[in-house]
Amino acid sequence: MSGNSTLVEHEAPEKLLAQRGLFAGPSQIVSEDLYAEISQGIADRERHRLVVHPHATVSMNTYFGRFPATYWQRWCVSGEVELSLTLTGSGTVSIVASDAEGETRTIVAEQVSGADARVVTMSAKIDKFTDGGALWFDVVTGEHQLVVEDPRWTVAPPKKVRPTAIVICTFNRVEDCLNTMAALASDPEPLSLVDAVYVVDQGSDPVESRPRFAEVAAALGEKLRYIRQPNLGGAGGFTRGLYEVMEVDHAEHANVLFMDDDVLCEPEIVVRTTAFANRTAQPVIVGGQMLYLLHPNHLHVGAEYANLDTLAPGQVVEGALHDADLTGYDEETGKRNVQDRRVDAGYNGWWSCLIPSEIVKAVGYPLPLFFQWDDIEYGYRARAHGFATVTLPGAGVWHADFHWKDWDDWHRYFNLRNALVTSALHSQFDPKRICRSMAAQLATYLVGMQYGLAATQLKAIEDFLKGPEVLRDGGVQAAADIRKLRAEYPETVKHPASEVPGISSGDLPLISAPPAPRLFAPVLAKRVVNQLLGRSVHDVGAVAAGDSAWWHVSLFNTAVVTDASQEGVRVRRRDRELAIRLGKQGTKLLKELYQRAPEMQRAYRDAMDELTSRENWRRLYDL
């Protein structure tokens, strides 16, 4: 099932479908209010059909119901959008617009009486949305009901339509991957816009080994390209898709849409991201947004950037929604939590993200970072070459909530090491700022009795200082080494809350945290001194995940801390000698980082072209 696909530009349709109006989601766990809001009366919402009972009002001013006009005006060449709907019954449909402040205005309205599957079209100029605003439609009924079917927002097509390949990267998440593949296969219209679906399987438990694979493969048909390869992390899996597409003849103008294996997939994302990419004035990375899988009404972030000077990813762009309930209302304004103001992203996560082939040709392939920061580095490298990233509202998938993943994990090594690499490549790489930030981090880990996390950080710095050679194998050895290292530290192990080793549950009071200190440095210094002198406030106690900040945990001799996943607990025990040893090792490493920062920056920049070359990835794939 591997081999070259046909990825040629298609003849343009009469109208380019920009997005569909959907009234319900792809799963029963998803609220219909994300699609269509019943603001008065009664209505029945199905995926492609809305029945509005008499004396009712339904608004599509919702996350999936809005057409993001401000993004289309800023980035695309389309000056007008047309809405078509099939109506049966009586009522009024109106197109409504908002501005950057969320103020609304009606653009056009159409009243029907006794319609029988009548197709109604209305259009709106995309001309007053530079700073913000969206379009949507509202439905109002009087004495009779109105059935609305298959709403479609369309724009004028380009001369040729770009082909699209989807790339799903997977590692031992067989059922998740099959669910994502099945979701894409289940919706014929988005699937018709896709020329190839690459499934890059890097696991020891192959997706193709399940009986269900044959059924899903048959549904995807000749579009499926199933590839097995060694585990090179997310970077190696997604890059394989780029590698394959760039090999196809006539794929100079192709879209490559990355999709995580463990998302709840909304197939509509294919329609919206590919249409947008087909109409941008210049190639841009088109990012899908992430909604929380455990809390499906919540948006992770409207747009984000990384602070490369302090190695901090996931910074919220000013004015962007963050951890927002999309079915809720702003307490101050009383308005729906929607993104009216246009916000520009620094990068987009690869849970779902479209990269045009022209960008790959201009900037090279991703770095072999294994995973973590590979998407950030690529976004900033593209930006340096003049290619922006657009995080497109209304194009979303559901992905596991980030704050339900514990920070103290083996992946933290890649987060830190790759942050240093990215900062060296794309910032001034000021050693004073970086070392100050990392020293503060290390101190909080040590006083919080997270010795394994401290060792993880030091290993990341140590390996960064080895230079670009550390990336030669794509991260395979580093992934094995960090797991082995962390196994030496007992507090990295998760235990069932009912069976905490060495502690009687009757002697484990739950102790709440005091308020966060107003002055960070003096409190941290005080905790360090007290621990060196063997002083503590509590001998042993339980600490909730939400109370597990260093300023609280550092008051204990032994703290049983709930893991962020809520699946168990970690036991942190004070070890003065170990803290001193790690502190001394950290001081030495940070001094070396401070002194060698300019040298390391030159080394990584000099190696960049070779590391991101097709030849390097061919070697890593052993092709």
TrEMBL record:
<dbReference type="InterPro" id="IPR045699">
    <property type="entry name" value="GlfT2_C"/>
</dbReference>
<keyword id="KW-0808">Transferase</keyword>
<dbReference type="InterPro" id="IPR029044">
    <property type="entry name" value="Nucleotide-diphossugar_trans"/>
</dbReference>
<dbReference type="InterPro" id="IPR040492">
    <property type="entry name" value="GlfT2_N"/>
</dbReference>
<comment type="similarity">
    <text>Belongs to the glycosyltransferase 2 family.</text>
</comment>
<dbReference type="Pfam" id="PF13641">
    <property type="entry name" value="Glyco_tranf_2_3"/>
</dbReference>
<dbReference type="GO" id="GO:0016757">
    <property type="term" value="F:glycosyltransferase activity"/>
</dbReference>
<dbReference type="Pfam" id="PF19320">
    <property type="entry name" value="GlfT2_domain3"/>
</dbReference>
<keyword id="KW-0328">Glycosyltransferase</keyword>
<dbReference type="Pfam" id="PF17994">
    <property type="entry name" value="Glft2_N"/>
</dbReference>
<protein>
    <submittedName>
        <fullName>Galactofuranosylgalactofuranosylrhamnosyl-N-acetylglucosaminyl-diphospho-decaprenol beta-1,5/1,6-galactofuranosyltransferase</fullName>
    </submittedName>
</protein>
<feature type="domain" description="Galactofuranosyltransferase-2 C-terminal">
    <location>
        <begin position="435"/>
        <end position="622"/>
    </location>
</feature>
<comment type="pathway">
    <text>Cell wall biogenesis; cell wall polysaccharide biosynthesis.</text>
</comment>
<feature type="domain" description="Galactofuranosyltransferase GlfT2 N-terminal">
    <location>
        <begin position="43"/>
        <end position="154"/>
    </location>
</feature>
